[in-house]
């Protein structure tokens, strides 16, 4: 006769068996997904309003299944398959608009097997699963996974090797690539592309798109019209052509070759071997970086702040070029109304201006050649021979050491300040009678004055400022001791 404990155990066991049976019945009722084997050739999938999950599995056989994302029900009947001359065509048949089905197409392919997905309003994900190490292979001429999508989302994670290259086009969609190491060719219109920790070649074409590259070691070649582009915390050579776009480069290591027109450019805190900027009607900033920089600015403006390294700037068409805190040698050329401004630079400055303005304040040294320009110089301890033709402006040489030499011609009008005690040695056609020179507080020696030996370097124990001034008949110079 069974005890009460035995009867309780029996009832409990019966309930467990019933639950197991119900689970099996429910599972069979839901319909286990049927995986349809596919050929190892090219695959072409056409789908809309659904989800596509692609697994790249080394050594696996290709296969496909379709399930309902809500219930797991097998929806294989909605997938049509048709042999093509170039491979196998797959098509997800549109469902009833009133149906609540959410089809998920699950594809399994091998590395190197070409897959092309075409459609709209899709959520596509590609994952590279771990497998045995692949043998070294030569880079492919064409990618193996192709997406031609509209208003869709595409995500790829961990794609590694030349056998899983991507070619993607999207209109109004979103692309995200995480931790991939392969060739990527992406063309984005009116959508976004986000690339994280990528290694390998990137070819990107964007129109009114939002591009974001962060981390990794890559070689991006980008062509962008409208939209925005961000390069952050990564390394590798960048080649960018942007038109009407906003571009931001932050803490990027590697050569930067950027052509930008009618937009905005900001390069900050980037340690590069080379910065090559070709700007047209662009407002640009280069700050807190290092390397060797070459900048051409046709219209617009370039503002350099705290750059470490030699730099060359050429500005034209009324462009504005300003540089402050530059530690390397700085060479500036301005033409056609360009405005050049230099402040607090610890390197040697060489400036050439034609038909514009040039202002230099607190530079280690300066060599200046200007024509038809407005000139301002202040607080420059070392002044190399200066040539000014048809210029106006002020030269504050109070802090200038040694014997600066200034040549003035072609009707220039200049004001000069020298530290007391000071002397002026004038020469040239405009200095014969001294009528072209107004000198106050300095000893003025004209060419017709008798020679009394070399000028005194010291006056009452203080070293004198001695200005060597060459002047033509049409120019006027006012000199004041301070």
Please characterize this protein's 3D structure.
This protein is 6% helix and 59% strand. The chain is built from one helix and 37 strands. It has a 35-stranded mixed β-sheet that branches. It has a two-stranded antiparallel sheet with strand order 34-35. The radius of gyration is 37 Å and the shape is rod-shaped. The model is unreliable at 15-31 and 134-141 (pLDDT under 50).
Features:
single chain; mainly beta; two-stranded antiparallel ribbon; 35-stranded mixed beta sheet; 482 residues; 6% helix; 1 helix
Unreliable sequence segments:
15-31, 134-141
What Rg do the Cα atoms give? 37 Å
Overall average residue pLDDT: 89
* Helix share bin: under 10%
- Main sheet properties: 35 strands, mixed
Q: Helical segment tally?
A: 1
Counted beta strands: 37
- Name the beta content range: over 45%
Overall shape: it is rod-shaped
What multimeric state do the chains show? Answer: single chain
Derived structural class: mainly beta
Q: Gap between N and C termini, in Å?
A: 124 Å
Summarize it:
The protein has 482 residues and is mainly β. The chain is built from one helix and 37 strands.
Question: Can you lay out the helices and strands and say which pair or pack?
Answer:
Blueprint: H1 4-30, E1 36-37, E2 43-56, E3 63-68, E4 79-84, E5 87-92, E6 103-109, E7 115-128, E8 145-150, E9 153-157, E10 166-171, E11 174-178, E12 184-189, E13 192-232, E14 238-243, E15 246-250, E16 256-261, E17 264-268, E18 271-287, E19 290-305, E20 311-316, E21 320-324, E22 330-335, E23 339-354, E24 357-371, E25 374-378, E26 382-383, E27 386-389, E28 392-396, E29 405-409, E30 413-418, E31 422-427, E32 437-440, E33 443-445, E34 458-459, E35 462-463, E36 465-471, E37 476-481
Parallel strand pairs: 2-5, 2-6, 2-7, 7-8, 7-9, 8-10, 9-11, 10-12, 11-13, 12-13, 13-14, 13-15, 14-16, 15-17, 16-18, 17-18, 18-19, 19-20, 19-21, 20-22, 21-23, 22-23, 23-24, 24-25, 24-26, 24-27, 25-28, 27-29, 28-30, 29-36, 30-37, 31-33, 31-36, 32-37
Antiparallel strand pairs: 1-3, 3-6, 4-5, 34-35
